[in-house]
Design brief:
Blueprint: H1 5-24, H2 41-49, H3 52-71, H4 90-108
Helix pairs in contact: 2-4
């Protein structure tokens, strides 16, 4: 029974993450989680490294969300962003942070 507890906990956490993702509301405007990250120096560098098509898709989503917000509307449910389709910027951001940390460590020596 103890071996099954982590699986049940993992499933429960995934369910909680999906519930919270839908509760936040940005997906109802067609935004992804990575569209809502505050742009600091690391995020700006990660955005610079994105492929052009992914960057243009991001800008479209942000403009559409602004338009919907001004009209006080949301997208139809079939157009909402799904939890499974999210997180396009995270790998680039992790790489930028790792490089910055490595550079800081190198400068300490």
């Amino acid at each position: 029974m103890a071996a099954r507890a982590p699986v049940a906990t993992g499933r429960l956490m995934l369910g909680f993450r999906k519930w919270y993702y839908n509760l936040c509301g940005f997906n109802k405007l067609g935004l992804m989680r990575d569209d809502t990250i505050i742009e600091d120096a690391d995020v700006k560098e990660a955005l610079r490294r994105l492929p052009e098509r992914v960057y243009n898709d991001r800008m479209f989503r942000i403009k559409r969300a602004l338009d919907l917000s001004m009209k006080q509307q949301i997208l139809p449910k079939e157009q909402w962003t799904k939890y499974e389709e999210d997180f396009y910027l995270t790998p680039y951001l992790e790489e930028v942070i790792r490089e910055r940390n490595e550079k800081e460590e190198w400068m300490k020596k």
